[in-house]
Amino acid sequence: MKIPVMILSGFLGSGKTTLLLRLLQETKRLGMQPGVLINELGRQDVDGHILEGFHPGSIQKLLDGCVCCSKKNELAGSLQTLLQQKPSIVFIELTGVANPEEITDALTEPGLVRSFELQQIITVIDAEHALDYNSIFATDRQLVYTLRRQMEVADLIVLNKTDLAPQHQILKVENMIRKHNEKARILPTAHSRMDVNPFLQEIYEQRKSSNTMATPGIRTIHIGKQAVMERSEAKRVPSTAQPSHTRLSTLCLACPPHPSLTKEAVERFLGQWNKSLLRAKGYITIPSHQQTYLMQLAGKRVYWEPSSSVKDPYLVFIGIDLPTEDIQQAWNKLYPSSLV
Ligand SMILES: Nc1nc2c(ncn2[C@@H]2O[C@H](COP(=O)(O)OP(=O)(O)OP(=O)(O)O)[C@@H](O)[C@H]2O)c(=O)[nH]1
């Protein structure tokens, strides 16, 4: 029986990892064995740390590039490694700038098609910021194209961060999504909180009975109480896909503890680069609190979450035309590591 694959797509910071955690909690509850493939643009792995404790050994990481372009050749190897763990389901969390159809294409290649079967593409949309992206990225047509494809090829759209957007804005985002995808169910959520059991229960039952019910080209998707039959090939567009991004770059800053490192100072530093900075995340130890935090800049918001300490704290920046050298120099000036 082929291993079902669930792809999680959606722009940077929309809530993919938050949803992945929910899916993993439910797979654990059902006693299923998940395999996870995480792809991150930065060299340092932030999401992998967040998932620590979940099924160690069954997480593969592809760092420092996007699996739909520069890391594409490594996708098959990572999936083959996961295969050795005999997972009952595989989740692939894409980078925020990945075009999911590139991965669906890769899954149909000879080395993988016999082992894996695409079950579902879930795209997570940030209700607070989605409407701004078209104007923010007006000059980067490839990125606008990618964001559109993320919506168009989705089977389910999780409209997340509804706690941060007024109702009239949520309706506008729904209309925008509908223009790009007439069929997919749109599920408004906060903190990617949704009932993931129906997705997994069906797979669990299928694998228990090893009963291949699927008619070729048709799959049954259960969302909540609704079951939708649809022809999968209708949405699978063969590779006219383009690489998903052009001007994106990443930077990793080392953050050894420094006496003047405070949350406020870090937020001021992030604000300095807000023209080009799209996302930042990483681990920082604040000496005055004697505490390490997972810091996340997503959209215009900064989140601080207490975390267990990490060996070498770091921050990953992701942005368009990011002035990486200027940022590095400014950081070194503020926090020379020799002062540690
Ligand atoms: N207020 C609010 N915060 C959220 C919600 N969902 C996620 N967050 C926070 O937003 C930040 C980014 O969430 P992630 O789940 O890491 O987003 P992501 O899509 O995986 O991000 P990338 O992997 O960088 O693309 C985290 O600090 C989350 O706690 C939500 O619905 N409401």
UniProtKB/TrEMBL annotation:
<dbReference type="InterPro" id="IPR036627">
    <property type="entry name" value="CobW-likC_sf"/>
</dbReference>
<feature type="domain" description="CobW C-terminal">
    <location>
        <begin position="250"/>
        <end position="335"/>
    </location>
</feature>
<dbReference type="Pfam" id="PF07683">
    <property type="entry name" value="CobW_C"/>
</dbReference>
<comment type="similarity">
    <text>Belongs to the SIMIBI class G3E GTPase family. ZNG1 subfamily.</text>
</comment>
<keyword id="KW-0547">Nucleotide-binding</keyword>
<dbReference type="InterPro" id="IPR027417">
    <property type="entry name" value="P-loop_NTPase"/>
</dbReference>
<keyword id="KW-0143">Chaperone</keyword>
<dbReference type="Pfam" id="PF02492">
    <property type="entry name" value="cobW"/>
</dbReference>
<dbReference type="GO" id="GO:0000166">
    <property type="term" value="F:nucleotide binding"/>
</dbReference>
<keyword id="KW-0378">Hydrolase</keyword>
<dbReference type="InterPro" id="IPR011629">
    <property type="entry name" value="CobW-like_C"/>
</dbReference>
<dbReference type="InterPro" id="IPR003495">
    <property type="entry name" value="CobW/HypB/UreG_nucleotide-bd"/>
</dbReference>
<dbReference type="InterPro" id="IPR051316">
    <property type="entry name" value="Zinc-reg_GTPase_activator"/>
</dbReference>
<dbReference type="GO" id="GO:0005737">
    <property type="term" value="C:cytoplasm"/>
</dbReference>
<dbReference type="GO" id="GO:0016787">
    <property type="term" value="F:hydrolase activity"/>
</dbReference>
<protein>
    <recommendedName>
        <fullName>CobW C-terminal domain-containing protein</fullName>
    </recommendedName>
</protein>
